[in-house]
Amino acid sequence: MHVFVTGASGWIGSATVDDLLAAGHRVTGLARSDASAAALEAKGSAVLRGDLDDLAGIRSGAEQADAVIHLANKHDFSDQAASNAAERAATQTIGDALAGSDRPFLIASGLAGLAKGRPASEDDASPFHGPDAPRGGSESLALEFVTQGVRSVGLRFAPTVHGAGDHGFVAFLAAVAQQKGVSGYPGDGTNRWAAVHRTDAARLITLGLDKAPAGSRLHAVAEEGVPTRTIAEAIGRTLDLPVTSIAPDDVDDHFGWIGAFFAMDLSATSAATRQLLDWAPTGPTLIDDLDAGAYGVAE
């Protein structure tokens, strides 16, 4: 299968390209820079130069492929409205290009806001719709294309897709700990974050491409929920820093933009995904990666 991948040189995307190629698929990756293009070509992937705002290029990539895996996102927390608009426009463009073809369209999403007081499940529909919603309501929009002959599938990633070299949420928490001289957790630290190793997430995507029916919602979750206090304690061990609770009223000031996320309960189950895809995560746990030094050591 010829697969067009946006975000192909990113943290999840680069591992996904490796897994797709190993499974025998042909890949074309969207690349913004010379460095990204060179990295993809070195793997054996074809390259389409462009970015999330290049809708003509995205449409061309989708039209020429047998399937699309849309992983790119601007993640610009300083201008969330612009990020949401770009994500929605790209999703609409891909859906329009694939309409009536029955081709797969796998789209990245998250777990926030899906459930309260319990782990989110694949049965939980996204509450986010419309251009002003988080990520521009892109998961909901993509799944609407099922009625237009597209095999749309939602890919919901745990808040931490971890591993050596990760520059996402946990890396930012470790940086905050180094800056503040203390590894903090919100309140009593009992709220939980789901987690998955990067290689397990990539494998799930390849399996989903082959097996997931139209309208599926897949959860890239290996650990249902790691308490934030446990995460903070592991960061403290790694960086040789004291660990302390941060009062709820002080969370935003202490952690910055990530405080709102770290204070959420983002636990989720992947039972239905595992059964549907015969997916069994085998990578290290989040705490294994922290204890192994994947997120740095104190200087």
Please provide the count of β strands.
Answer: 12
Order of helices and strands: EHEHEHEHEHEEHEEHEEHEHHHH
The low-confidence parts are none
How far apart lie the N and C ends? 47 Å
User: Treating each run of at least 4 consecutive H or I residues as one helix, how many helices?
Assistant: 12
Q: Given the helix and strand composition, which structural class is it?
A: alpha/beta
**Main sheet attributes: strand count, strand direction, barrel closure:** 7 strands, parallel
What Rg, in angstroms, do the CA atoms define? 19 Å
Fourth-tier CATH superfamily name of the largest domain: NAD(P)-binding Rossmann-like Domain
GO cellular component, one term: cytoplasm
InterPro entries: Epimerase_deHydtase, NAD(P)-bd_dom_sf, NAD(P)-dependent_oxidoreduct
Pfam family, one: Epimerase
Domain NAD-dependent epimerase/dehydratase: 3-212
Task: Tag the structure with descriptive keywords.
299 residues; alpha/beta; Rossmann fold; UDP-galactose 4-epimerase, domain 1; 2 domains; seven-stranded parallel sheet; three-stranded mixed sheet; 12 helices; 12 strands; NAD(P)-bd_dom_sf; Epimerase_deHydtase; Nucleoside-diphosphate-sugar epimerase; NAD(P)-dependent_oxidoreduct; aldehyde dehydrogenase (NAD+) activity
Q: Mind explaining what this structure looks like?
A:
- The chain contains 12 helices and 12 strands.
- Helix 1 packs across helix 7, helix 3 runs parallel beside helix 4 and helix 6 crosses helix 8.
- The chain is globular.
- The protein has 2 domains: 184 residues, NAD(P)-binding Rossmann-like Domain (Rossmann fold, 3-Layer(aba) Sandwich), CATH 3.40.50.720; 83 residues, UDP-galactose 4-epimerase, domain 1.
